[in-house]
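Q: What would this complex look like in 3D?
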Amino acid sequence: MASKIRILIIIFLAVILEISFFPALFAGVIVPDVVLVLIILWSSRKKFEDIWLWAFFAGFFLDLAISQKIGINAISFVTISFVASFLRERFFIAQRTGAFAIALTLVVGGTILNWFLINFLTNFLMNFSWKLLLMKIASNLAVAIFMYFLIARYKRVFGISESKLTMK
Amino acid sequence: MPKKLLTSKLIKLILAIAICLALILFNPKNFFAPVRGFFFALAYPFQKTFYFSGQAMHNFSSVLFSIGDYKKENEKLIRENNELLAKLANLEDQKKENDELRRQLELSPRDKYELESSLIIGQDQRGSGSWIMIDRGRSDGIAEGMPVIVYDGILVGKISEVYEKSSKALLLSDSSSSINASDVQTSAKGILTGEYGLGLMLGMVEQTDIIKVGDDIITSGLGGLMPRGLLIGKIEQISNTPDKLFQQAVVRPKIKYSDLNVVFVIKGEK
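A: Here is my prediction, written as structure tokens for the whole assembly.
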């Protein structure tokens, strides 16, 4: 129960960071998807069965906070969590080393997928801009690097056990 | 075993997607309004703290990056100061002229409204200039539809959602924003809409009306709580709609929405 409350608080704080801290820090130019990065990093360490509900709630929280239609971020996060989890288990599980690079690769892929999904579900059209997408990827990578080491350092706080595939 | 696992995963994925799609399609906004209200009541102190921390860090980094320019900046400021002193004498005359022009152009006087000043505590995280969150809410007398302006009477948006201590304002550049506007110089009327955070578009302007590049656009005061005479921006480009029934114009906003720090909500007339 304590672990669940901890995760809930982490998601809540990530949402606040994304809608209040980073827009002020970068003057609204480009804002990293903190919640998305968190979900991807979790998915790279947890089984889909353990993360899908958290991915759903994280998306739901973000939808509540940004007041667009409820479900848009939730659908994106659950899908990305599934894909990240699937890729990790199918292709990356054999990799003994390079967990960091794999996590970053998943962040890049997840950012691109999220970009298209959100754009499509919000506007039903593609406002495509290479420049904005690249800036988004760069900002998400920066946050992911920081968060990766934070999670590695405080595994228990983030609800991750020592073994990558077993859950608390 | 792996096949069974995949099936179980897929069922969960499909279930989650089905729930989300149902939520998106039916969009039960009112159903979630109490949840949202509770969320923002809980988030309010965190939002305020986080936003101000972010702003402080932004200001600090700006100072750090510009430290090398300080000497040049100082010399420039001394020069500008001398020029400003010379110009000061002319300002009184210009003020009178400005007041007269505002009266002639029917722009709203700045002291006409009951204003509620508010700080921004959150904004669109997609960087598309869609909305801002302010630190004034129901307890401060804020209501849905109230116009949001900056200090010199420039309209930036209107209140779209109100919570106990905070509110969300939809910026003019949001795709769902739509207000009645008119051309100051020619009195042509139209509807101003947002262009997915990219800019503003004045549409539904009749072919018989005259609009010109460089004309000022203000609120026309038709409908809702929006008063007449709030400045929006300047016409940048004019074209016809594809069916040639109406004219439309790209409007450049008077201010950059991402640079906002303080805004005022018009609660009513004095």
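A: To summarize the key features: Chain A touches chain B through 47 residues (CB under 8 Å). The helical segments of chain A are 2-25, 34-43, 48-66, 72-92, 99-123, 130-153.
Q: Very helpful, thank you.
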